[in-house]
């Protein structure tokens, strides 16, 4: 958002903005994971309850085994004990299977919930966010980063909760059996826990970087695919492939790093088990020999030791997967924390809605009016010192733990600053029910004018008025429902003709669809395929010609029958017939409504009620064609070039 009035403070996200750490980038805390888990608290509670039962069943096993040994030594019959053991094994198996299913389902639900939140947020971000974010990276956050959350649930976290019960239970049992042996075991375990915690902080950082690389990869793929014809025609396939492969390689390298660090974690539980086993066996042997404990006690102590180490391994796995997930969650949360479009003006909009401001547009006021409008797009801030960031990241890596906050070392490309002015004191009024054309050289600011009417951006100063009311005082949804907008060059969505038409007017009937298609001279496309309205138009409408695409977009706007229609004429050159059809389409939509059309071909606009000439963001002339030819040199030149005078 470029408006000085509505731009939120720089520090938008608690994670990313305004706070730069050595490993620059969005970071998530464990507490931010909790809301995702909390959504499933009932199922998770059930899983924990099952874990407790499972833990009890597991804990009972060594006790039974110890009983079996005692009974065998005494030469007594074993019947009941054996059946109890079999029963316990079966119960443990069933419980663990059900638990596994619940965890997988919950993991999938957490991913689903994160995706929903992300999509909900992304589609509502201010347009300025799309100017500086890469589409592929956003797609990757929805598709890839979210899947990392799955592992938190399935790989350990909840298991570790249940496991910790086994751990505590085993600990108590071991304490009762032999406190001396336990002391030695705890010592070995404490060393391994400290090591794992130190290593896993690094996993979070590297995992986030890996996700960033996956984002880069997705953005690169999107870039090439969306321009595939140009890429092919430029013989750039090899170079584009190489560039994408380099991004894939970056993701792979980071993946290998994650694997290396994780690989340090995995054997630690095993090593801890082996070391404690040897210590317990050695010292335990002496203690049996000296009569301090019995053989049965030593055997059950060792079984408890195994039982205690298993959940420890789970806990280490959990720490690892949580840290990986937190890397991805940082990127998810960064988007979720962005303000949605209009977040700042909710109060104004509520007031406006209460007052019915759109409906109460002032009688006699122009449909659209610009009053001394100045505007500058925000431009992404530069990364000031990448080398400093790298050094700081390396320093943090050496420290192994999660990076501490540092001084701002630079700026990511997602922060924005006000760029150079695009509109400078633009004033004009588009009368109701009339046709206003905006003309001017490329880059003059014509499309920007339409963007301000749609409130994709707000002016830096001055005001844009709809029916005499400043658009900032209107509810955006109401405002947009009054305005049709046909954007330049890319107006068709993948899908069928019907889906395209119904985008703004989901309830329109087939008859209405067919009527608007005829109104814009597109009746013929219905005859091309037996499917009629259900014929697919392909990604970006590639199955339609440039002129047809533009007219389909006009038909869509026409179907909604808005009182004001903004039309950014396609810059692509149309042949005579297509141009004629476009003019007829515009004539059809101009009926009974206020039309503002950006024209690249003066022939489309010579008969407009009013023409506004824009040059370098300034209005340099307003009038009819014949007036402007006399009064405005720029217009005269444009007209001359297009052979109209
Ligand atoms: N989203 C954007 N972010 C930053 N700058 C932009 C953005 N859109 C346009 N600009 C800049 O604003 C200026 C005006 O662009 P605009 O698209 O309004 O011109 P135009 O008159 O419609 O041009 P054309 O006739 O070529 O479509 C240009 O210098 C352009 O580079």
Automatic annotation (TrEMBL):
Protein name per UniProt: ABC transporter ATP-binding protein/permease
InterPro entries (alphabetical): AAA+_ATPase, ABC1_TM_dom, ABC1_TM_sf, ABC_transporter-like_ATP-bd, ABC_transporter-like_CS, P-loop_NTPase, Type_1_exporter
Organism, scientific name: Herbiconiux oxytropis
Keyword Glycoprotein: no
Low complexity composition-biased segments: 1-14
GO molecular function: ABC-type oligopeptide transporter activity; ATP binding; ATP hydrolysis activity
Keyword Transcription regulation included in the entry's annotation: no
Main subcellular location of this protein, as a coarse class: membrane
Topology term for the membrane: Multi-pass membrane protein
Family to which the UniProt record says this protein belongs: Belongs to the ABC transporter superfamily. Siderophore-Fe(3+) uptake transporter (SIUT) (TC 3.A.1.21) family.
Localization per record: Cell inner membrane
CDD domains: ABC_6TM_LmrA_like
Keywords: ATP-binding, Cell inner membrane, Cell membrane, Membrane, Nucleotide-binding, Transmembrane, Transmembrane helix, Transport
GO annotation, cellular component aspect: plasma membrane
ABC transporter domain sequence ranges: 407-641
């Amino acid at each position: 958002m470029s408006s000085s009035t509505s731009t939120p403070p720089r520090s938008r996200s608690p994670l990313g903005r305004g706070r730069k750490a050595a490993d620059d980038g969005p970071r998530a805390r464990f507490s931010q994971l909790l809301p995702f888990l909390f959504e499933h608290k009932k199922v998770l509670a059930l899983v924990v309850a099952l874990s407790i039962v499972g833990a009890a069943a597991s804990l009972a096993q060594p006790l039974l085994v110890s009983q079996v040994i005692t009974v065998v030594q005494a030469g007594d019959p074993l019947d009941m004990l054996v059946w109890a053991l079999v029963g316990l094994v079966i119960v443990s198996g069933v419980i663990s299977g059900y638990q596994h299913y619940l965890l997988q389902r919950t993991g999938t639900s957490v991913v689903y919930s994160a995706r929903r939140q992300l999509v909900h947020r992304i589609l509502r971000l201010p347009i300025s966010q799309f100017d500086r974010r890469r589409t592929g990276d956003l797609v990757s956050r929805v598709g890839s980063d979210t899947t990392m959350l799955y592992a938190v649930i399935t790989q350990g976290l909840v298991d570790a909760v249940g496991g910790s019960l086994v751990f505590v239970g085993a600990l108590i049992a071991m304490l009762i059996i032999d406190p001396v042996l336990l002391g030695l075991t705890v010592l070995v375990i404490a060393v391994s826990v400290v090591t794992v915690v130190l290593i896993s902080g690094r996993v979070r950082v590297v995992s986030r970087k890996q996700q960033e690389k996956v984002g880069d990869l997705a953005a690169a793929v999107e870039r090439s695919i969306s321009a595939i014809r140009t890429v092919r025609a430029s013989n750039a396939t090899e170079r584009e492939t190489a560039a994408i492969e380099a991004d894939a390689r970056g993701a792979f390298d980071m993946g290998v790093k994650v694997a290396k660090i994780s690989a340090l974690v995995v054997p630690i539980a095993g090593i801890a088990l082996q070391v404690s086993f040897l210590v317990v066996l050695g010292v335990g042997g002496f203690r049996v020999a000296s009569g301090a404990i019995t053989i049965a006690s030593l055997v059950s102590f060792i079984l408890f030791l195994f039982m205690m180490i298993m959940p420890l391994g789970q806990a280490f796995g959990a720490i690892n997967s949580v840290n990986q997930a937190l890397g991805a969650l940082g990127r998810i949360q960064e988007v979720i924390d962005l303000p949605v479009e209009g977040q700042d003006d909710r109060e104004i909009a509520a007031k406006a809605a209460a007052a019915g401001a759109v409906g109460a547009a002032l009688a006699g006021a122009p449909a659209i009016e610009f009053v001394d409008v100045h505007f500058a797009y925000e431009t992404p801030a530069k990364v000031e010192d990448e080398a400093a960031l790298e050094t700081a990241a390396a320093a943090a890596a050496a420290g192994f733990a999660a990076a501490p906050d540092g001084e701002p070392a630079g700026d990511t490309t997602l922060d924005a600053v006000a760029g150079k002015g695009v509109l400078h004191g633009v004033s004009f009024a588009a009368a109701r029910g009339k046709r206003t054309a905006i003309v001017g050289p490329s880059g003059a600011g014509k499309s920007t004018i339409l963007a301000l009417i749609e409130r994709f951006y707000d002016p830096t100063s001055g005001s844009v008025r709809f029916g005499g009311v400043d658009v900032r005082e209107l509810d955006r949804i109401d405002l947009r429902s009054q305005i049709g907008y046909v954007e330049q060059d890319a107006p068709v969505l993948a899908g069928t003709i019907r889906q395209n038409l119904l985008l703004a007017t989901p309830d329109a009937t087939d008859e209405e669809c067919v009527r608007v298609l005829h109104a814009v001279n597109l009746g013929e496309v219905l005859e091309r395929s037996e499917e009629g309205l259900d014929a697919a138009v392909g990604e970006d409408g590639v199955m339609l010609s440039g002129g047809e695409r533009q007219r389909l977009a006009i038909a869509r706007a026409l179907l909604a029958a808005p009182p004001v229609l903004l039309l950014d004429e396609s810059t692509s050159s149309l042949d005579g017939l297509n141009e004629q059809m476009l003019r007829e389409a515009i004539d059809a939509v101009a009926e009974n409504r206020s039309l503002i059309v950006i024209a690249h071909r003066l022939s489309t606009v010579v008969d407009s009620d009013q023409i506004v000439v824009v040059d370098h963001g300034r209005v340099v002339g307003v009038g009819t064609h014949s007036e402007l030819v006399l009064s405005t040199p720029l217009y005269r030149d444009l007209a001359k070039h297009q052979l109209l005078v």
